[in-house]
Specification:
The complex is a heterotrimer. By secondary structure, chain A is mostly beta strands. Chain B contains ten helices and three strands. Chain B has a three-stranded antiparallel β-sheet with strand order 1-2-3. Chain B is elongated, with a radius of gyration of 32 Å. The relative contact order of chain B is 0.09. Helices cover 68% and strands 0% of the residues of chain C. Chain C contains nine helices and no strands. In chain C, helix 2 packs across helix 4 and helix 7 packs across helix 9. The chains are: A mainly beta, B mainly alpha, C mainly alpha. Chains in contact: A-B, A-C, B-C. The interface between B and C is large, with 44 and 45 residues.
Chain lengths: 298, 221, 183
């Protein structure tokens, strides 16, 4: 091995640096994170403090500053965002805002607000309360157990929501939207090229709107649900595993129907240009019902 | 007149008294002509209330309503039934200069799109609501405004292409193509069935998705 | 899996249903037809609840709100019933503001006394609707909701944020006062 190569290997080995800082915080604090590429992992502890651990190269500097209730952590390289792998340990009631370009993020156990903006990468959130907003362009987004106003947007890939309650808005272009164990009182799910699955409560007085261009819409209707359901499709078919009494809605478009289930108290609107609309009871076969996760790829 | 008894007469009449109370009132009524007369009066009031007829307003209020559902002047936005169901989304990204200066996409109405173009030398050309009995014209008029917005945004995207990661550009372009195919599907279907309400709305919504995608793409660069 | 379907075309039978569906899609001509058919009812309700001077404005508010919410009307209940409930909500939403403007919200004893005095001429019979306007606000609203619109005391109590007992006693006072004008 020549000396220059050995030197290069040694330099490479010392290129990765570690930052480890802990800052005390009060209740209601907010953590703001900015980076270009890298990973962000968030977990919780009982201390009133935020621990920042980062792995990065020498040319990237981790800036940690606290101003009032806001802790700002930035991976910086030559005046712009840099790359780093972060692990944050935080109090559960903290709010989090993370912005990245090629970021993979996993946030666990947070009971505060969560906002994540990214371009390419997978986002996974367990928790979140109040205002929860995840945006990406390329990558899967999965949210479990959030409650409040939940907004999830991606473009290429899918969205999975599980056990989410409150008001939900989920939009993608090329990917499915899979919602399971849902307890939301309002859901707006839209995709262009992808299927939509909603399995969960249709709450009294709730509003549920599902729209896709060429994907199927699977709506699982609980036995005790009461809903007025309106279905509009251009070339899709409607099929149901249980009996429904249909009325053609006035205007006489060929495939527009409405019907009432139970006491009709929830409002459901299903639109699909070319995809089928399928109504099922809980437990009946549907994509993802065999125990394996419904695929987030078409 | 004994107020204690007359005070119970409405409840007695409406069936809101318990069995014991009702018996007591009936016993009193048997002996009290004044209370019987009061009860008859109360029954007459209720009967008169039930027989009231509804009179229309003295003046025609329709114009005042029509203004709020179909604005007659530029710059006034209408919130239609469709948009009320699907509220416009607020982006937290900062808008690029081009968008802030020249295009403001206003709230969709049920049958038309309102697009205010100002500055950038294009003049205040604003879409007004086409007459509601001409649905085909609605779609054509609104489409041309969408097309204008899409052209502007595609030009902006082209300019900012160098600043975006190539993989991201590819993803965005792939998805623009996906939406374009969906728009083509809807347009083709509309040619065969021009008055189909669902198709009209679906086309508008799909064009709106394209604009949103372009906005996000240009604002992230 | 099969679909058990019973399709009915109801457009011929119920013009409201047809027009509501059209209006939900943006057809303002259809909405105007609905307005023409239902404005008397909405205007009378507004006038009785909150007075003639606000009835026009309230009626317009109700129909604008109905236009905005039409997408939520699924056509299973009668359109008139749905519209009526929406009108009540709009009216109740405005009454606080209007009452503050009028500064006459709580039980106004003197108003009862004024009305209770016998008319000077035995031949004079005040128009019943007009007599309503002289009742104190709370009593009038309760009378309209119970005896004209048919709501129960429990429902009225929730709508007006009072107790059912207050609703009953105010209703009784309103009836006792109004009976003078039917003699």
């Amino acid at each position: 091995m020549t000396i220059p190569v050995l030197a290069a290997l040694l330099i490479g080995a010392t290129m990765q640096q570690q930052t480890d800082t802990t800052i005390a915080v009060r209740a209601g604090a907010r953590l703001e994170v900015e980076l270009m590429n890298g990973t962000v992992a968030v977990r919780t502890w009982n201390r009133s403090a935020v621990r920042v651990q980062a792995t990065h190269n020498r040319s990237t500097h981790i800036d940690v500053s606290g101003r009032g209730p806001v802790i700002r952590v930035t991976a910086e390289r030559r005046g712009a965002e840099g790359n780093a792998d972060f692990v944050f340990t935080v109090p559960a009631d903290i709010s989090i805002a993370a912005t990245g370009t090629g970021m993979d993020a996993e946030v666990n156990g947070i009971r505060g607000e969560v906002s994540i903006e990214n371009v390419a990468g997978n986002l996974r959130l367990n928790g979140g309360r109040g205002r929860v907003r995840l945006e990406s362009v390329q990558g899967d987004i999965s949210v479990t157990g959030a409650t409040g106003t939940v907004e999830v947007y991606t473009v290429n890939r899918g969205i999975r929501l599980s056990a989410v309650s409150g008001t939900v808005s989920a939009e993608t272009v090329n990917g499915p939207i899979v919602m399971e164990h849902m307890q939301a009182s309002s859901v707006n799910a839209e995709t262009v090229n992808g299927m939509i699955i909603h399995d969960g409560a249709l709450r009294a007085g709730g509003e549920y709107a599902f729209a896709t261009h060429n994907g199927a819409v699977w709506l699982v209707v609980p036995e005790d649900a009461g809903a007025r359901i309106r279905v509009e499709t251009y070339t899709g078919n409607l099929d149901s595993s249980f009996a429904v009494t249909m009325r053609k809605t006035a205007g006489a478009d060929a495939r527009n129907f409405s019907f009432v289930i139970g006491n009709g108290s929830a409002n459901v609107s299903i639109e699909s240009f070319g995809g089928d609309v399928r109504l099922r009871r809980p437990g009946e076969a549907r994509p993802g019902s065999n125990g394996r996760n419904a695929p987030l790829e078409q | 007149m004994n107020q204690h008894w007359t005070d119970r007469l409405s409840e007695y009449m409406d069936g809101d008294l318990s069995f014991t109370e009702r018996v007591a009132v009936e016993r009193h009524l048997a002996d009290c002509a004044a209370c019987r007369e009061t009860l008859a009066d109360l029954r007459a009031v209720v009967a008169a209330a039930a027989s009231l007829s509804d009179a229309p307003p003295a003046s025609d209020l329709w114009q005042g309503i029509a203004q709020h559902i179909a604005p007659a002047q530029p710059g006034v936005v209408a919130i239609g039934a469709r948009a009320a169901q699907r509220a416009p989304r607020q982006f937290s990204f900062t808008l690029p200069q081009l968008l802030a200066a020249s295009i403001v996409l206003a709230v969709l109405s049920g049958s038309g799109v309102f697009l205010a173009l100002n500055g950038s030398g294009r003049g205040p050309a604003v879409a007004t609501q086409p007459p509601s009995n001409v649905r085909q014209v609605d779609t054509r008029a609104s489409e041309s405004y969408y097309d204008a917005a899409i052209r502007e945004l595609e030009a902006a995207l082209e300019q900012s292409r160098g600043r975006l990661d190539p993989a991201t550009v590819e993803v965005i372009e792939d998805n623009i193509r996906i939406i374009d195919r969906a728009i083509l599907d809807a347009r083709t279907a509309l040619e065969r069935d021009p008055s189909n309400q669902f198709l009209n709305e679906h086309l508008e919504n799909t064009m709106k998705r394209k604009i949103e995608l372009l906005k996000r793409a240009t604002s992230r660069s | 899996m099969t679909l058990s379907v019973l399709t009915e075309l109801e457009t011929a039978v119920d013009p409201d249903r047809a027009d509501a569906a059209l209006a939900a899609g943006g057809d303002t001509a259809a909405f105007e037809r609905l307005y023409r058919r239902h404005t008397a009812r909405v205007h009378s309700l507004s006038r009785r609840m909150l007075g003639a001077e606000h009835a026009d404005e309230l009626t317009q508010d109700v129909f604008v709100r109905a236009w905005q919410k039409l997408a939520l009307f699924r056509g299973e209940a009668a359109f008139g019933t749905w519209l009526h409930r929406l009108a009540i909500n709009v009216i109740l939403g405005r009454r606080g503001e209007i009452a503050r403007r009028r500064e006459r919200f709580s039980d106004d004893e003197s108003a009862f006394d004024r009305l209770s005095a016998r008319p000077t001429s035995a031949d004079v019979k005040l128009d019943f609707d007009a007599a309503l306007q002289h009742l104190p606000d709370g009593a009038r609203e309760i009378f309209v909701l119970h005896d004209i619109e048919g709501y129960k005391h429990e429902e009225i109590a929730q709508m007006l944020n009072i107790s059912a007992g207050t609703s009953k006693s105010q209703l009784h006072r309103a009836r006792m006062t109004l009976r003078q004008h039917l003699r």
